User: Fold this.
Amino acid sequence: MANIYDVAFRTILNDCRKLIIPIINEIFGETYTGEEEILFFQTNIF
Assistant:
């Protein structure tokens, strides 16, 4: 079973895309403005 944090982060990526930049800024101490292009690539192998 997936870790609860993995599920929460996947939900944020899929359902709350406007929160991605603020989360990255907070976790990694960055200062992105939100004008950057975000590309999503699936990395799951089933």
